[in-house]
């Protein structure tokens, strides 16, 4: 892979027979998927999307629009897909919406032969628009919500410098969530795997299952112990499920 602005090769991965592009949650970065990348190596090459406004892109202005994020990633995918190797997308929480929009762009009105499977994690299907938690705006509210979900620890909350570093990206991501609306009738033709934590406070299994209405292909659902960030404690189990689904594609 050549130089890329939005996409990072995770250090633990090898070339793999298949690649998987991972889209992080609101306030998150590509390194959220480092454990999953290690667990899937060397069979799957994991690439992480790095949104602007965080880590090595912290000096850049965050993007406050989910379709624009998807368009930026899509623009860089041409070179990645040129070798003909199968590719899957994996999006967690907000990243599930960005991955869905990027998959629609990749489809481009034609059968999405370049996309083997879409994994959507920790997010209700976007049929009903923003959820109440997407509409938070005050910094204190946002930090409280992220802490409740398990995305921000007490060590971060107690460090004003760290808080000031992460808040521009967090604000932008929540503005993107609050204004996102799926194009009516939008649908894919690739298989979809829905992953969720059994105790996730923001998405029920019933809401997660509604993703099946957004593809003409098969949909499967995997439920894991844990809450919204179940992936942090269930890396090996998730990796096994991902590998099994990819082999079935």
Number of helical stretches of at least 4 residues: 8
Briefly note the structural class of the backbone. alpha/beta
Taking pLDDT < 50 over at least 5 consecutive residues as the criterion, the unreliable ranges are none
List the strand order in the largest sheet. Answer: 1-3-2-4-5-6-7
Return the CATH architecture: 3-Layer(aba) Sandwich
CATH topology: Rossmann fold
> Which oligomeric state applies?
single chain
Give Rg in angstroms: 17 Å
The percent range for strand residues is 15-25%
Q: Shape from CA axes?
A: globular
Identify the CATH homologous superfamily.
Alpha/Beta hydrolase fold, catalytic domain
Number of strands: 7
Write down the overall mean pLDDT.
87
Organism: Streptomyces longisporoflavus
Protein name: Thioesterase II family protein
Family: Belongs to the thioesterase family.
Pfam families: Thioesterase
Give an account of the 3D structure:
The chain is α/β, with parallel strands linked by helices. It has a single domain (7-128, 185-248), classed as Rossmann fold (3-Layer(aba) Sandwich). The chain has helices at residues 34-40, 66-81, 94-107, 139-149, 154-157, 160-179, 205-209, 235-248; strands at residues 7-9, 18-23, 44-49, 87-92, 115-121, 192-197, 219-224. The protein has a 7-stranded mixed beta sheet, sandwiched between helices. α1 links the parallel β2 and β3 (44-49). The radius of gyration is 17 Å and the shape is globular. It starts with 6 loop residues before the first strand and ends with a helix. The model has no long low-confidence stretch (mean pLDDT 87).
